[in-house]
Structures
1.
Amino acid sequence: MRKKIVAGNWKMNTTVAEGVALAKAVAAKSAEVPANVGLIVAPPFTHLVSVAEALKGSKVELSAQNCADKAKGAYTGEVAADMLVSAGCQWTILGHSERRQYYGETDAKLVDKVRLALDNGLGVILCVGEMLEERKAGRHFAVVTEQTENVLFHFSAEDMAKIVIAYEPVWAIGTGETATAEQAEEIHACIRKVLEGKFGKEVADNTTILYGGSCKPSNAKELFAQPDIDGGLIGGASLKADDFIEIGKSF
Ligand code: PEP
């Protein structure tokens, strides 16, 4: 059975001290979340070592928000996958729409990033999702299918065991506007079909697909009740420990 996961993307928020306090609050309440639900937090790079320490002894796992598309060397400002592992990460988010939009992240670059992350033992949360204009033009299924194929079709069925997909419609991120449960479910089901076509039914059935985009305690239950929605990638609401834990209890 595929794993249920709630992951918090803190983005560029909190100082180190604030982040450690948030991590401690999440860790302290994490036992309230059912044992079959995984919890992950993704603080900024600067916080990783301290947050790893704060999470020790809890079920909460640590993720980065990005990693470099190169292994090491003269790439000023970049952080490599093995550095993330050495800082205590088990995961990295890759391909978030903010990285695609503001930092020129392409599917081709993502192939290199996913490869390096997996080679170094990190799990990957790969984000896909359409822009508002693409949805308005009725291209949402095509866009999400392309993004999924362009990156994941370079990997094997075995690799897929370490990859989680997050469907995040860009128009729902940080806007307060959530996709309806039906809108989210139909895209999740589409992604699962794409995976089935390439990797077979077992891999498709075992892949965790998260929804992200203004997910909060008040709408998480309805979203997570959908057959192909296996949890959430949470932005704003992950900055409040109580809200994040409440979302973790929404299955
Ligand atoms: C995100 O950026 O991953 C996200 C889902 O943000 P928010 O929950 O704030 O919409």
2.
Amino acid sequence: MSELKALLFDVDGTLANTERDGHRVAFNRAFKDAGLHWHWSVEEYGWLLQVTGGKERMRFFIERRNPPVPAGVDVDRLIIDLHAAKTIHYTQLLGEGLIPLRPGVEQLLREAHESGMRIAIATTTTPENVTALLGNTLGAGSVDWFEVIGAGDVVPHKKPAGDIYTWVMEKMQLAPEECLAFEDSRNGVLAVHDAGINAMIITTNDYTRDHDFNGATTVIDKLCSDGQGAITLLSGYDPQTNCIDLAAARRVHAAAQGLAGKLTA
Ligand code: XBP
Ligand code: MG
């Protein structure tokens, strides 16, 4: 059996609930600044989340919803400019400190960092957004806890393709069976599997609760119990804990390899 050597984290929806009150709000501000009469409601944004990547999501919106686009505007240019403006709005929103990490995330990251467990990021979002989230929640310097940050356009195909996970593992010289991934969405599950990784913990959120998580090792509603209650196991292997720490992460990793219960301390 392969030993667990690294934890690979998705960002949006997994480390923090960034989509509804972060990315969505930033997109709407960018649309307004550009004089566009576009607005993404909470519900509409849930539908748009089927496409990962902000630029790709705007293109999908234009193609499928046919919103008013000023005459003579080059759509490719418009998307690039809107996305740049959106990134500025998003990082400003994070700077206001209104988007916290999800329960248990800081605890697990700190334990991993302090004990020398290798950690990395595998996300479709823009690199500046990752740095801003980590800096504004865990503090300046926390970005250095991560051996590799795989983000945004560094790979040609975003999730559900596995490219970003493959890119991260190549940089870290890791095999898929040495990794445990943390995701929150169906696109995340598909990306993790496409990269050949079997072990994964899903933490659901309001936008992803009803997704198909078939193939995930453990599906729970949060990493740790909080003021709202205990962890609920939604499907898969029961990590038998109220907080996913490194010991629980190792159990899930072992379970994914079909060796649940055989792991020695
Ligand atoms: C995250 C995304 C991203 C963000 C926006 O997906 O889909 O597109 O919504 O980021 P995942 P950018 O959590 O599966 O990585 O606008 O910076 O692309
Ligand atoms: Mg996500």
